[in-house]
Structure formats: C-alpha cells, structure tokens
Amino acid sequence: MKRFLLTLALFLLSFSSPSHAAPVRIKDLVEFDGVRGNDLVGYGLVVGLNGTGDGLRNAPFTEEIMSNILERLGVNITGEQLRPKNVAAVLVTATLPPFARAGSKIDVTVSAIGDAKSLLGGTLIMTPLNAADGQIYAVSQGAIIAGGASADGDGASVVKGVPTSGTIPAGARVEREVEFNFAGLDQMRLALRSPDFTTAGRVETAINAAYGRRVAQMLDAGTVQLSIRATREPSAAHALGKIENILVEPQRKARVVVDQRSGTIVMGEDVRISRVAVSQGNLTIRIEETPRVVQPNPFSDGDTIVVANTQASLNEDPGIKLAEVPSGASLSEVVAGLNALGVAPRDLIDILKTIKAAGALHAEFVVN
C-alpha cells in the first residue's frame, strides 16, 4: 500500500507546473570591476588583561614589541626584565571598503598569536594597518569586545566561545585613500558571482532594454561589459546607480548539497531524476552475553566454572519496499514522498548518493 501511495504521489507531482526563480537586482548578482575592498593587517599589543596575557618566556616577541612601544613613549627599559601577565601580542585585520575617505572609521578584528588565555577587558594600543603594497592605510586603537568567556580554578577550567579573538567596532581610522579615478571610466565590466551563460545573457538584455539601445555586451559566462559613454549618463556613478537596481531572473545550476554531520539536505528547484527504482532496508544485529556460574556437587573435588551463554539475533527492517520513481520527477518531490514514509534524514542521504551513483540524479552532488 505504501509503495502504491508513494508512486501515485510522485506521478501526480511530476505533472505540476515548474516554479520560476524570483527576479533579483543586478547589484546582488555581480561585482563591479574596480569597486572592491582591500585587506589590511597589523601587528600590535593588547594591554589591561586580568592576568590572562602572554607568558613572556614562551612569547619573546611580546616583550620585544612592548619594549619598542615604551621606548617610543620615552621610557628607558634597557636591561630591565619585564614579566607582566596583562599584555598580549595580537594580529589586527580589517578590510578597507571601496571609496573609503580619510577620517572615516572601519571595524577591525583582533586575534592573539601567543599563549594568552583571553583578551577580555583588553585595550589595543595604537597599531598601524598595512596593505599588500606595504603602505599604512589606517590606524587602529580601542577596547576589545571578545566573543567568549573563560574561567579556571585549581582543579578545573571551562571555556565558552573563543576568548582569544575579538572585534573593535569602528576601531580603525582611515589615514590614506586608495587612488581610483572612477569618474573617468569609459567602460565597466560586471563580473557575475556565479558565472552562467544564461544569466549573463539576461543581464545584457535587461540593461539594453532599460536604455533602449546597445550599451552592454556579454563577453563570457562571467563577464558583461558596459559602455559608460553609450549610457549618456552624467557620470559612471549615475550609470551604475541606475543599472544596479534592474531586476533579472538568474539561472542557477542544478545542485544538491548534503551535510552528513547534521543530516541537512539543500537542493535546487532544477534538480531532476530519471526513471529509477528504489529499495532500502535496515539490518540490525544484536548479541547478548549472559554467562552462568556452575557450582560443583557438595563434597566433590570439582571447580567452579563459568559457562558462556550467548544469544545472537539478526533482524532486518523491511524499510522501503521496491518503489518506482517516474521519469522527470523533481528531487523535492522524491524527498517529500520518502519523508511521508518516515525515512530518516541519514537514510535519505544514502538513498540520494545511491541514486547519483546510478546516474539517475541529474545535478551536481556536493557532500560536506
């Protein structure tokens, strides 16, 4: 009866009208060539820790940077042996956003590189942030907001989250701007985040339709070239401000993503399955040991022995009987039918992997 209901449900659902992807703004599909951030990194010192800093014997670089900072502040510590426990050496990372101007502030992330136990309550001392060209583009300083907590005693300790890493919102001030003549651009390339010929063609068509003339041209599956001069807009900023809000219906590749650890399955609407038969069952083996003690007769020279008593059983759960999936059924319809029969998520993952191995699952299968 279950087999009949599953086959009937999948057969009826296979004739349902296919759904279409919702239109998406071009700004959510592409990256504009040249409009990008720049990674920054710096090496600094965190102070004010409550005895959770670096052990200077295990992290000599902490003592070195602390000495350099104090000497720049006019404190002579030559020949002194410093053993504080409230400082920690850290790496500071940030992203300089596009069109960031001098004086604006950006967020930074602070991570310990020594054996510090926690950065809670610490303050980052003025740290220059360099880009890949070696130039200083921002300077960071401020109180750290750590994302965890830790406590320890004489016999035990507990840690929640990652207290050795934290952030400083608006903790860096931009000191140098990235030179980029955006207003003087004559052409701009739009790079698709997920390259696809169909989507790139739709982006080209939508832009040309919005202007009523040919201003965009698809170069490949991931690039659409835009002529700023052909748009007749006052500037490149005006042109992109209009183009980025044009709606386009993207075309996605059929894909199934499976996370075996959590039993999560995510699938696209374009996944299809060819005609295939599915049968699945579970095998359970149970072995029980009940040893018995045998005593000798009274006044005899016998010994007490233990006699093994083993009971073994093998049960096979019928699971899913042989069920036929009609050709052209979507994966969501198959999963809905299997869920209606009470198939566990991990069993469902095994079924999908087997269908893919049989060549009946027409989609990219990604297992994490």
Automatic annotation (TrEMBL):
Leader sequence range is 1-21
Predominant cellular place of this UniProt entry's protein? other
Q: Which GO terms describe its biological process?
A: bacterial-type flagellum-dependent cell motility
Give the Pfam families listed for this entry. Answer: FlgI
What keywords are annotated for this sequence in UniProt? Answer: Bacterial flagellum, Cell projection, Cilium, Flagellum, Periplasm, Signal
**Location of this chain's protein in the cell:** Bacterial flagellum basal body
Role of this protein: Assembles around the rod to form the L-ring and probably protects the motor/basal body from shearing forces during rotation.
- PANTHER family in the cross-refs: FLAGELLAR P-RING PERIPLASMIC PROTEIN FLGI (PTHR30381), FLAGELLAR P-RING PROTEIN (PTHR30381:SF0)
- This chain's protein is named Flagellar P-ring protein
Q: What is the lineage of its organism?
A: Bacteria, Pseudomonadati, Pseudomonadota, Alphaproteobacteria, Rhodobacterales
Supply the gene name: flgI
